[in-house]
Amino acid sequence: MAEPARASADGYADALAFEAPYLIEKLVKDHVAESVDHAELLFREIKRYFVVTECDAGVTWSMYSLEVDAVWHQFVLFTRQYIDYCRAHFRGYIQHAPSNAPKIRLAAVREPSTFEMFAQRYAQLFDESLPDVWYDDRNVTLARRILFSRADDLTLRDGDDGMVELLDSHGEPIFAVDPVARAALEFMADVRHFFVRELPGDLDDDQRIALVSVMVENRILALAA
Length: 225
Fold this sequence. Notes:
alpha+beta; Outer Surface Protein A, domain 3; 2 domains; three-stranded antiparallel β-sheet; 41% helix
């Protein structure tokens, strides 16, 4: 199958310039964004994501940011405005399909995306690197809500090397930490949905953030919208 022609972002200036004050207000009110500026940044990124997917329609583009995906979800809730936006600026309604959605049969005839592909195409289209909102592990703060990415039962075990291991429901280790973080890891496995600041034990705030960031980077934990 021949590769589809790859467009540029030049023809999407109006789509990128589109403003939605009603959406920005809701993002701040519902604590999806910390401020108006933060909401504007996130909205810019979902519009850029749309442009990437439109410019490379032969690729099944995954959504790589929970923060940006939350904005997409909120935008869809303004049904009429969202439909009008899609029809005015793109080829039609853009179906909201987060990265954890079931794969549809159509995806089989398209090239699956990777994060590296997305970052490269983004840089080509917008002449700048991906901002930090696309890296979930860079957005861990003490006030951030976190949840486990997996639903199976998790247990702890003292490893032979002195580390504390987190085991899945099959008894296989999926993560290991220094014993100083045992209380925090045990709390996570038990509570499963928490704020970073709530982690117990002898960790300082920087260590709490670092521990969660590594676990988010490894897809063990996820940012809660």
